Sequence to fold (437 residues):
Amino acid sequence: MDLRKHPDPEPRRGRAWWAPLATLVVGVALGAAGMRLSLHPPRAGGPANAPAPVEKKPLYRCPMHPAITSDHPGDCPICGMKLVLVMEPRAEGAANAAGPVRGRATVTIDPVRQQLIGLRTAPVRKGPIGATWRTVARIAVDPTRVRQTNVKVEGFVERIFVDFVGQSVRKGQPLFSLYSPTLLSAQSEYLLALQTKDSLAKSGMPSANGESLVEAARRRLELFDVPAAEIERLRRTREPSKTLTLVSPIAGVVTAKNVVQGARVGPGEAPYEITDLGKVWVMADAYESDLRRLRVGLQATLTLPAYPGRAFPGEVVFIDPLLDPRTRTAKVHLHFANPTRELKPEMYGEVTLATKSQDGLRIPIDAVLRAGSQDVVFVALGQGKLEPRVVELGSRSGDQIEVASGLAEGEEVVTRANFLVDSESQLRASLAALGGK
Fold:
C-alpha cells in the first residue's frame, strides 16, 4: 500500500462525517429565512425585521388586593371577591391613544360597585346662572367721617366734660375748657376794638377805621377756634372769659382721648378724636378672577354672626386699583348705613354680591375636581363607563356652576364618589402606561 496517497486516513474519515452535516444546516437556515421574507415582506418606512402586532390578553384585578391579577375572569384566592376587568385586550406594540385628560383614563365600574361606593350622577342642564360672589369682609371706620379737635394756642386744661373713649357726643357738645393767656389777650383786643368803634361813633368821626379794627380782632379769635357763640357773648357782655370751652365739631363717638384735667397742651396737639359711625365701610377681598364681575354701584348684602337671620343692604363704592402682592387680591370698599350703630368696626361677616342672571349650562359644584391647572369632571357614558373630561367653568350660583365648554346638555356627570373614581382612573392610566412599554 502506498502511504503517500493516504498519509492520514483517520482525519479524512472525520472530514467526511461533519462536512455534509454543516452544509445541510446552512441550507435549511437559508431556506427558512427566504420563506419568512417571502411570507412577511418588510413594511414601507420601517425595518425589515419589525415584529407584527400581537394581541395582548386582558387584565383582571382584585378590588381589595391589587397585587392579585389574572388574564381571565375568576375569584380572588385571598378574599374570594370577583376579579374586575381593568385593561381591555389590545394589540401589543400599538400606539397608546391619548386620553381626554393626561394622567387619567376611562374606567368601567359595574352597577354593584357603583352602589357600594355611593356613586351618584346628575344631568347637565340649562338654566339661569347668577354671578353670585361671596367673600369674608371686615367692617371699618369711614375715614372721611373722622374729626380731631386741634389746639392752636398754648394753655392748661381746666375741666374735662367728656371723660372716656367710646362716649357718644353731639355736634357742639362741650369737650373741655382751656385757660390760655394768648386767648385772654385776644379777647381783650376784641373788646378794645369794640370800645374804639363806639368812641368814634359818639365823636361823629367816620367809623370805617373802627369797623376794620373790630373785624381784625374778631378774625383772630375765629382762627383760634373760638366758637361763634362765645364771640357773640363777648360782644354782648363786654366781659372776657378766663377759659375757653372747646366743643365737638361733629356728632359721633369719641375714638381717641389724649388729655386729662390739669394737663398742659400746646399748638398742634389733638386732645380728642371724634368718629361719625352713621355710615361705615366694609372691606372685602376680591381675587383676580372675581374682578371682571365687580363694578361700582353693585348692590350687596352683609350678614354677621352677631345678628343671625338679618341682612344689611349696601353698595360697592370703590375698587382698589392695586393688588396686594402677598394675597393676590384687591380691596373692595362698600358703604353701609348704620343709623343704630349695630355695625361696629372690626366685626367680621360675609358679603354677597349678585348681578343679573343669564341662561347657560350648569352642573353641581360637587362634580368638579381640580387637576393641576385644569377642572375635570367624570362623564357617564353608559354600561358603567366613566370618562374624565376637561371643562371650562364660568360663574357660580349657589351650589351650581356654569360650564362654558366641555359638556353638552343632557350628559350625566358624577357628583358623588368622584374622588374614588378619580383614583381608579389615575391607577388605570398608570397601568396602561406600564403595559404599553
Confidence is low (pLDDT under 50) at residues 1-54, 90-99. The chain has four domains: 54-92, 107-129+358-435, 132-142+277-354, 155-269.
